[in-house]
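Practice problem 4.
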């Protein structure tokens, strides 16, 4: 890996590991719908002009039906549920539970007919991952919000299902155009709710800073850096960041917010990673599938 590739890799490990912390701070004064509107809207204001300048917007809008489905399942609904869940559970727990996405993607692939990886290793990895998730949550469910767990489960399904839509209907479209259009659609959809739920007073500086970081750094800049990383090191090596992001989220939650971190969470996270590796075969195959389609055939940014 080149020095530039290493810098991009480290940047993405951090950039997509910190959103859980800032979401937790932002929802202390903003409703989930308002946060989604601000995050998607600000990021769209940055990325849409870039997509227009590169001529990537028009071909994307021609496939508006699957684009709407992708925007809702991959961004709009998960972001709302994620923000809602973090009003009830810690950012550390949220980030670690999101690490179950590869396992759900494996199941979705089986449902869609991809059974070439359905062997003892795949089944064993899936079962091991389930045990890992149980360890992360803890066996005393009374100490955890059941509603929040259901919300996170739906987020995981959305993050795993979105790439399937992307692969089937939007794989030939330019990447920045797809992301910019999706963010713009989400902002428009949440605008009425944001107006109704707009805070009666100006939020604290920490909340405003969190929104800015989520929109500018964790969304707009993140995708540009991410596409640059893929162009530098390839989609397979780039996906390793997804195994580091939850650990970053957990560390920040404990260090900055003073959240609890149990031995069960640590052991469970390791079990989920091992289970994901076994279920997906040669490395994070589900991620290669996702990112190959996300990048499509667009030129490097």
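Answer key:
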């Amino acid at each position: 890996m080149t020095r530039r590739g290493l810098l991009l890799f480290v940047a993405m490990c951090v950039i997509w590991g910190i959103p859980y912390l800032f979401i937790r701070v932002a929802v202390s004064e903003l409703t989930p719908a308002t946060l989604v509107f601000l995050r998607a809207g600000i990021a769209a204001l940055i990325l849409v002009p870039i997509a227009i300048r590169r001529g990537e917007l028009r071909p994307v809008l021609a496939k508006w039906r699957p684009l709407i489905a992708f925007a809702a399942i991959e961004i709009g609904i998960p972001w709302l549920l994620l923000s809602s869940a973090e009003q009830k559970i810690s950012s550390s727990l949220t980030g670690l539970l999101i690490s179950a996405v590869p396992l759900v993607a494996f199941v979705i692939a089986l449902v869609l007919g991809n059974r070439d990886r359905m062997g003892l290793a795949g089944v064993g990895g899936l079962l091991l991952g389930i045990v890992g998730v149980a360890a992360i949550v803890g066996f005393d469910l009374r100490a955890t919000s059941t509603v929040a767990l259901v919300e996170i489960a739906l987020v995981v399904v959305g993050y795993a299902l979105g790439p399937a839509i992307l692969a089937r209907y939007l794989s030939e479209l330019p990447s920045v155009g797809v992301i910019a259009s999706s963010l713009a659609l989400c902002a428009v959809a949440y605008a009425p709710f944001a107006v109704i739920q707009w805070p009666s007073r100006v939020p604290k500086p920490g909340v405003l800073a969190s929104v800015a970081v989520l929109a500018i750094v964790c969304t707009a800049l993140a995708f540009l850096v991410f596409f640059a990383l893929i162009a530098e090191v390839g989609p397979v090596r780039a996906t390793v960041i997804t195994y580091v992001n939850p650990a970053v989220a957990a560390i920040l939650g404990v260090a900055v917010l003073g959240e609890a971190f149990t031995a069960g969470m640590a052991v469970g996270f390791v079990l989920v990673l091992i289970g994901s590796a076994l279920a997906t075969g040669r490395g994070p195959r589900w991620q290669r599938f996702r990112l190959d389609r996300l990048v499509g055939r667009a030129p490097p940014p």
